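Notes from the 1:1 (GR / supervisor)

We went over the backlog. Supervisor wanted to see one worked example end to end before approving the batch request, so GR pasted a single chain during the call. The sequence is below; no edits were made to it. Supervisor asked that the structure be written out right there so they could see what the output format looks like.
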Amino acid sequence: MVELDQLLKYITQGVYVVGVADGEQTHAFTAAWVMQVSFSPVLLAISINPEHHSYQLLKRGGVCSINVLNKQQMDLAAHFGQSGIQDKMATGQWQVAKTGAPILQESLAYFDCKVSHEVEAGDHQLVICEVLDAGQLNTGVPMLYAETGTMDDSDVLYDK
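Structure output shown during the call:
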């Protein structure tokens, strides 16, 4: 029998580096639970664990960038997915978006966003963000979460 954690990988999603800033600090984390939720205005939703440092910066600053990773950038996905790294921002080339959020220059594309609102969603918060600016930075094929294997060790998080 196939386990639930494996079946959930059939719900396709990309892999992103989300950059956050509060005017004093910048930080970034890997996210796979990102999706478009509205055409007008253009809204994207990010699912984030409210216990993480990145969530606190996102709440304080109210801005973020969603950076689309290339399928060849597993090293970046793994780096920004780790906790406990003192200066995650030392990896990668960064530029500042119009909102002040950090944009990962190596990504395929970015979405510069401001937080609209959020919704409780079990053990995560669903943060709804309005896209204020976007652009393509490089060419390639986006990374899919289903192709990352056990990079994030999420299989241990499901109740079995």
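Supervisor's comment: The longest helix spans residues 53-61.
Batch request approved.
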